Fold HEAT repeat domain-containing protein.
Amino acid sequence: MNESSIHQLLEDLKNPDENVRNQATAELWHIWFRQKGRYGMELLERCQVMLEVGNVSQAEAL
């Protein structure tokens, strides 16, 4: 992913269309997850699931 693609995603976060903003948010998270490697990505995804169901302390412990 090059810098101009990331810049476009950041601009999409300002878009009035909620679907465009959600898609940009998801893609930016995906980029960040991939940068952390496979283990990091799996760990972050587990934390996200825990946060979504309200298990904040378990997510923080990871």
Notes: The CA atoms of residues 52 and 59 lie 10 Å apart.
